[in-house]
Design brief:
This protein is an alpha+beta fold. The chain has two domains: about 55 residues, no CATH class; about 70 residues, Orthogonal Bundle (Arc Repressor Mutant, subunit A), CATH 1.10.10. About 45% of the residues lie in helices and about 15% in strands. The protein is built from five helices and four strands; from the N terminus they run αββααααββ. It has a two-stranded antiparallel sheet with strand order 1-2. Strands 3-4 form a two-stranded antiparallel ribbon. The longest helix is centred in the middle third of the chain and has 20 residues. It is rod-shaped, with a radius of gyration of 29 Å. The model has no long low-confidence stretch (mean pLDDT about 80).
Length: about 160
């Protein structure tokens, strides 16, 4: 059988199977490998000689267990918002506070009348924030369109 050409959607290495794994899973697998006594690595001496070395298992297991603890701490750590994200949250709260029930607003109306925007805020930015508050996000704002003009109101 002739070899397959590299084509989109065809895997030319028929027996290759890959499983993505986390750092924590990799360290746990390495500990298992080391404890079974099969771990080896190539070491290079100061004089340039290379040799296959069987590592000190206790030291490696302690190191890898420490790395697993670090990975756990990192994944469990609370995530802080960036200053830009905090500003976005304040702006979205300001939008909701300034909107009146039953009244429809365009982005231009909001930029001119609401005091929650910076002077340099662009209509595209307001549109992005409104989409986070709209059907794509929390659903607090409803977007309607009439004759190509977008209107926003409280849900």
């Amino acid at each position: 059988m002739p070899p397959l050409k590299k084509q989109k959607g065809i895997d030319t290495m028929a027996n290759r199977v890959t499983f993505p794994f986390t750092q924590k899973q990799a360290y746990a697998a390495l500990i298992s490998l080391i404890e079974n006594g099969e771990a080896k690595y190539e070491a290079v001496a100061k004089n340039g000689d290379k040799s296959i070395v069987k590592p000190n298992l206790d030291t490696l297991v302690d190191f890898l267990a420490h790395k697993i603890e670090q990975a756990d701490k990192k994944s469990d750590a609370p995530r802080k918002l960036t200053p830009q994200q905090e500003a976005n949250v304040k702006t979205m709260e300001g939008i909701l506070a300034n909107m009146e029930v039953g009244k429809r607003y365009t982005i231009g109306d909001m930029l001119m009348t609401f005091d929650c925007f910076e002077p340099t805020t662009s209509p595209q930015r307001v549109s992005a924030l409104l989409s986070k508050l709209g059907a794509k996000g929390t659903g607090e704002i409803v977007r309607t369109e009439e004759k190509g003009k977008a209107y926003f109101s409280l849900a």
